[in-house]
Amino acid sequence: MDRGIGSLRDIYQRLRVEFGDRQWWPGDSAEEVVIGAILTQSVSWKNVEVAISRLKERDLLSLQAINHADASDIAPLIKSTRFYNEKARKLKNFARWLFANYEGSLDSMFLRELWELRKELLAVKGLGEETVDSILLYAGGKNVFVVDAYTMRIFSRLGLAQKEWRYQDYQGFFMNYVERDLKIYNDYHAQIVWLGHFYCRKTNPLCGQCPLLELCNFASLA
DNA sequence: GCCCAGGGGGCTC
DNA sequence: GAGCCCCATGGG
Question: How far apart are CA A168 and CA A162, in angstroms?
Fold first, then answer.
């Protein structure tokens, strides 16, 4: 019943031995992290980098600039991130909301109590759980565990998650059993993404070279 | 040319 | 709440 404790620590240690310290989220500022968090929805980071540098070239890599710009001016710059029209609207939605409620200041926003703020952010159209938690953790330095598609895929294949688990269940699992430490929350998610990206994709899964091979149910079936 | 990717919203039942 | 479609580029 409590096999989460040892397993989650063991897995994390294995990943660190394999990948080193991945301390994460590329981005020069909190605003950049927020923008990146929205742009990376359903795309790999590589595609986001292109969009970020295009926004930068046009001086649109700030929430104030985004708030003043038209979505139609933003969209073409972020084409590489797919669903660009929707994402342009999402960026504007968030910027508009931030200026309406926190005078455009992420610092003020992050002064809010964590779970209250999480609720508020989830009410902003275009922000779902993963995006909100990424913002809280990587831009705000808040202790929330970020769950993504890789997390679900990997930990269900490892036999640690139940089939019916949803986002909240995964998050609860990690937050109950992983040491409540910002650096670990940060790095553990980064390790998972790294592992997922290189070893655990549907196309060309490098199962045979996975550092968790001996623990994985899926690999033994494949 | 085909398949799939670090998500989220809207709709249906 | 689950299951489906939509959005619509880029890489393997």
Answer: 12
Query: How far apart, in Å, are the Cα atoms of A64 and each of A49, A59, A98, A100?
Result: 20, 10, 9, 12
Residues A34-70: tens digit of each pLDDT: 999 999 999 999 999 999 999 999 999 999 999 999 9
Q: Does the CB of A204 sit below 7 A from strand C?
A: yes
Cβ of A96 near strand C (under 7 Å)? The reply is no
CB A94 within 8 Å of CB A124 = yes
Cβ of A170 near strand C (under 7 Å)? The reply is no
Q: Is the C-beta of residue A171 closer than 7 Å to nucleic acid chain B?
A: no
Report the candidate in A118, A113, A116 with the shortest Cα–Cα distance to residue A135.
A118
Tokens for A89?
């609207």
**Taking chain A, what is the end-to-end CA distance rounded to the nearest angstrom?**
27
What percent helix, strand, coil does chain A show, rounded to 5? Answer: 70, 0, 30
Can you spell out the DSSP letters for A121-162? HHTSTT--HHHHHHIIIIIT--------HHHHHHHHHTT-S-
Shortest-distance nucleotide from A138 CA to C1': B6
| Angle, vertex CA A126, rays to CA A125 and CA A132, nearest 5 | 100
The model's confidence at residue A23, banded by pLDDT at 50, 70 and 90, is confident
Q: How far lies A154's CA from each of A22, A25, A78, A131, A210, in Å?
A: 18, 21, 30, 19, 11
Closest by CA position to A98, among listed A89, A90, A109, A87: A109
Task: Please count the other Cβ atoms lying within 10 Å of the Cβ belonging to residue A11.
Answer: 22
